[in-house]
């Protein structure tokens, strides 16, 4: 357990090369993702930060370097762009396009299934992007709703395409891909079988599961028992709901064929009558000449080519862009969010000192059965008692927006979303004297003239 530091030492801003790093928006086994601002042109990007020691320990350096080189050549309107790579003595920084529209997963979670026309448009964009990447030898291998983002215009953006080394994928001596599945609902029978698989056919199976979810609002394969779930996937035990059109049913059944040798291929999907309805060719942006020099420099040991890392001696503050990115009122999610009980994150503002905020949250969470880990002004609350979807873990962070005003963000890191919302209701009741304005009030104030 960590002790919180004094408010005066609240986390400083970090500058890496020409980028000023902002708040953390994602975290995984090998990487952390932060919003950043390009100080040269004011553009905002997402920066994926890898620990070199972890990468080398797991013998992934060469694979990641190779995959990054490939991804720099991928320039498709429905794939998140990889702009550049930088390296320091201890870290690798992957600079990516920042997509503000949120996850497609959140739309389904809040509003349920989509209309067929809307689902078809997203599926067309998905297949176009996957086919483009496959034609360049790049496979995703972890396609799921959570990896599908939306830009401000409502267009699909696939994240993490080609960066399979950052997931739990490994390549064994037979040259085929093998995996330990973290989210097995989307993976094909041959992946579960772990005898090696074709990346293109495995990706297409995942696309079929995604199409089913978009049209049905639920997964085709679900079971609390992992062995039973694997059996359902291996035997393709699923039923299309009655509202599916005949064309959609036929296409999904051809994609979710458990035998990869008879499964439909992407070129065949693109010729399918249901798929072709209302089809629009992707509009490619201006192609840039990709240089791979920065990749070699990032992974090299020469300090001459390492990026400069600087810490600014000021409290961590949240700029206007970061407030906007947190505000659903300026986010596409708002158009779909009719049932707010399914939100996976929430926030409130407080005029209390940050140490007092953290201490009060800890005091309120402990009686509810949560174990607490603190580091500076971040907190992880873990409930050892399993709920409907395992243990509920909640990440909390305090940001300074003015000398006497802070935003407190709580995000569900693991567990059931409804249980997270019930936990937050109980917690906020205990923090009435700490909370200045809750999530909806923050949006109202930020959108007021």
From TrEMBL:
Cofactor(s) needed by this chain: Mn(2+)
Ranges of residues in domain Protein kinase: 19-275
Reaction(s) catalysed by this chain's protein: L-seryl-[protein] + ATP = O-phospho-L-seryl-[protein] + ADP + H(+); L-threonyl-[protein] + ATP = O-phospho-L-threonyl-[protein] + ADP + H(+)
InterPro entries associated with the record: KA1/Ssp2_C (IPR028375), Kinase-like_dom_sf (IPR011009), NAF/FISL_domain (IPR018451), NAF_dom (IPR004041), Prot_kinase_dom (IPR000719), Protein_kinase_ATP_BS (IPR017441), Ser/Thr_kinase_AS (IPR008271)
Alphabetized GO MF terms: ATP binding; protein serine kinase activity; protein serine/threonine kinase activity
Any Gene Ontology biological process: signal transduction
UniProt keyword list: ATP-binding, Kinase, Manganese, Nucleotide-binding, Serine/threonine-protein kinase, Transferase
Enzyme Commission number(s) from the entry: 2.7.11.1
NAF domain mapped to chain residues: 313-337
PROSITE patterns: NAF (PS50816), PROTEIN_KINASE_ATP (PS00107), PROTEIN_KINASE_DOM (PS50011), PROTEIN_KINASE_ST (PS00108)
CDD domains: CIPK_C, STKc_SnRK3
Binding annotation for ATP: 48
Family according to the record: Belongs to the protein kinase superfamily. CAMK Ser/Thr protein kinase family. SNF1 subfamily.
Protein name: non-specific serine/threonine protein kinase
Organism expressing this protein natively: Sorghum bicolor (Sorghum)
